[in-house]
Amino acid sequence: MNLDSCVDRWSKSQRIQKYLTALDDAVESGRIQYDDEQFQKWREWAQWYAIELCPLTPNLPAPSIHHVPPQQNSSIQELDLTSEARNAFEQAKISDTDELASITKDELRERCGESVWSLYDEASRILEGLGYDVSDRKNGYY
Q1: Which 3 state secondary structure label does DSSP give 136?
Q2: What is the pLDDT tens value at each position of the chain, 142 positions in all?
Q3: Predicted model pTM
Q4: Residues 122-130: contacts with CB within 8 Å, 24+ apart?
Q5: Where are the alpha helices (DSSP H) in 30-67?
Q6: CA dist 96 to 23, 73, 78, 89, 102, Å?
Q7: How far apart are CA 95 and CA 3, in angstroms?
């Protein structure tokens, strides 16, 4: 992983954690009301995701019960990607998450160049957050 990618991931992790703290404050003060179990599962998953993104923290197992939203196709422009991933996916002419989900590591390497593990990993995390089944994508380095 290169420095820019690490900084982007760290920054995104920090933004998510700050958002979750603000969200918790709003819920505790009563400005926002989320009492249902689904919100609690999502909140647990969001905290795990923020920690998982950060290159300075060890990988943690995903929460055993976490909110998985229904799969939703989104354009690449709508995604919160690192600058490296956004540039690579746009240059590779990947238009949306359905297309991104269908691409294998080898196809991504052909479209984006040799060093694509971090791109594939980021794509997998984004897709998982959008409800895509990425269980077959998590088979390590290549």
Answers
A1: helix
A2: 578 888 888 999 999 999 999 999 988 898 888 777 778 888 888 888 888 888 888 766 666 554 456 777 889 888 888 888 888 888 889 999 999 989 888 888 888 876 777 888 888 888 887 888 877 775 443 3
A3: 0.51
A4: 122/81, 122/82, 122/85, 123/85, 123/89, 125/49, 125/52, 125/53, 126/79, 126/80, 126/81, 126/97, 126/100, 127/97, 127/100, 127/101, 129/49, 129/69, 130/69, 130/71, 130/72, 130/74, 130/97
A5: 37-53
A6: 29, 7, 9, 9, 10
A7: 26
Residue whose tokens read 């791109």: 119
Cα–Cα distance between 113 and 109 in angstroms, integer? 5
In the numeric block, which tokens belong to residue 3?
């420095």
Residues near 114 by Cβ (< 8 Å), separated by ≥ 6?
Answer: none
In the block, residue with structure tokens 């920054």: 11
Question: Which one, of 53, 56, 44, lies nearest residue 81 by Cα?
Answer: 53
